[in-house]
Sequence to fold (138 residues):
Amino acid sequence: MNPNELIFPQDVSVELLKAMFDAAYTHTEIDSDGDLYVKEEIGCYVLPNKNGTFIQLVALFRSQDNSSIDARLAFVNRVNDEMIIVRGYMRKNGGFAFDYYLPIEGGTTKRNAVQSTKFFLPTVTAATKNCDNEDVVK
Fold:
């Protein structure tokens, strides 16, 4: 697979994305919902939108059971204030999600999609380590 090959919105599929990450020697799996999960030290879902114009990267974390909602919100606010690439938010279940949207409109290379994900994952790790002053991430 040529990593410099362009992909366009009409090309984007879970199967193509899995093949790209497999070619980059990254652990991948497709879950029971048909979503692609990519894992290095931590993992994230790699979710193309329906028309292929962007790919959403989403890393999910649980919160400590004894942490307050105020402490959880303070954590995600700190992430959003201090981290440039990722957006953090608290989920309805009390856990956390971190995401990034990779635009595909106009085309991008396979290498860019893979490298953006490989940059996103350690950035999320940094967010959980550097912004979690009250130990709210499980």
